[in-house]
């Protein structure tokens, strides 16, 4: 059985290694869909209560919502400046693309021992990345 829960986050980012407009700081309203899979509990009839699932997703929303997400390797000067000015900053180990943000959400949920099977990260309504825990990808949680 598979269940899904969705959250929305408003965030800004820039792609420091991209040659194009996205190398400038800009914002998105992202939509994150997390899928869990497992057996339904015969007593409750659920894989997991959606309220419990929300409890695990709240810290992810808190980290991303109204934050600027930057590359921890290439944006150290911007990160320090923004933090010194009191801005909410999330430093990601790599470029803050939809692909890497989907991977980060997946790995964060997996680190909480949840039976996560898929994360879809919508950067826009029509542009999204799907991550299913492919083994050849780096596994970072922060």
Description:
With 142 residues, the protein is α/β, with parallel strands linked by helices. The chain has helices at 50-64, 76-84, 98-111, and strands spanning 2-13, 26-37, 67-71, 89-92, 116-122, 128-131. The chain starts with a strand and ends in an 11-residue tail after the last strand. The chain has one domain (2-128): 6-pyruvoyl tetrahydropterin synthase/QueD (Tetrahydropterin Synthase, Chain A), CATH 3.30.479.10.
Secondary-structure topology with pairs:
Layout: E1 2-13, E2 26-37, H1 50-64, E3 67-71, H2 76-84, E4 89-92, H3 98-111, E5 116-122, E6 128-131
Parallel strand pairs: 1-3, 3-4
Antiparallel strand pairs: 1-2, 2-5, 5-6
Question: What attributes characterize this protein structure?
Answer:
6-stranded mixed sheet, 6 strands, 27% helix, elongated, alpha/beta, single chain, 142 residues, 3 helices, Tetrahydropterin Synthase, Chain A
């Amino acid at each position: 059985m598979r269940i899904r829960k969705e959250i929305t986050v408003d965030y800004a980012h820039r792609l420091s290694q991209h040659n194009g407009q996205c190398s400038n700081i800009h914002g998105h309203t992202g939509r994150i869909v997390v899928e869990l899979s497992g057996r339904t509990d015969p007593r409750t009839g659920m894989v997991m209560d959606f309220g419990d699932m929300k409890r695990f997703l709240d810290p992810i929303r808190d980290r991303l919502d109204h934050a600027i997400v930057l590359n921890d390797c290439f944006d150290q000067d911007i990160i320090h400046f923004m933090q010194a000015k009191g801005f909410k900053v999330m430093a990601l180990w790599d470029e803050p693309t939809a692909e890497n943000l989907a991977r980060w959400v997946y790995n964060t949920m997996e680190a909480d021992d949840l039976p996560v099977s898929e994360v879809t990260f919508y950067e826009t309504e029509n542009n999204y990345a799907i991550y299913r825990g492919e083994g050849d990808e780096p596994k970072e949680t922060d």
